[in-house]
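[READ THE FOLD]
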Amino acid sequence: MKKFIILLFAAVGSLLVSAQITHEFSIQGGGGLSTFNYKLSSGKRLYRGGGDVGISYTCFFIEKLGLRIGADIGFYNNKAELDGAEVITPGLVDSDNDRFDMYSTLKDYTETQKNIFLNIPVMAQFQTKKFYLMGGIKVGIPLSSKYSVSGNTTLTNKGYYTDIDCFTPTPEFAGFGTFKNKSLEEKIPFKVSVTLALEMGLRWKFGNHLALYAGLYFDYGLNNIIPKDYSFINYDASIDYSEVENHEKLTQNSALPSLTEKMNLMAAGLKLRFAFKYP
């Protein structure tokens, strides 16, 4: 068995030495559906478009098979209408040091997210004279994730005190009651994404060194990018929320992660790639 393994490695090494390794440098761009995949417990999600642009390098160990790495800037957009949705923020403490859960009802509430990720693909590429197929993973690093709230929004808060099994809708200075016209624009601290990536399509050669790739791609996130212990309400018992200038401090975070158990990247569309091959 040991001799067989040695002979196998020797044969593979000999093949790689005898094969003419070629290098391909590319610029690419694509677009289509580019959003987050999630299921809301309440409210309506709207699918949004986006895309990516980037550069890549492919090393072909043999003519038909290579390994591709690169860097892409991906744009992902989300939008949801949350009229009547209820968001729960657990484990808060009031000014009397009593624990409670905040129940927030959102009306006429539309939230839009705009996210930019740096995606680093590591993919195997198989190709023939006219066809190519790629598969692998992408590591997505969040560069910018922002959300904005628009509409004639109304936020109604009430506290649920678990020790006495009681809801209270007042007082306003404690953050309970109804707050109107809350328009916000803040950041979201999403986590790094790991995405399964597939792409397939056609290729055309122009001479010995240039090629054009055109194909369909599909990316699906494998992990949940919502931060651990994410909360809708950032609550500070020392703040008097009845003061108008303090109203905005009640909703510093996006509502969407609190209305779902998991969010992951998802994209599908058409991609074009211009490549230069050497030698």
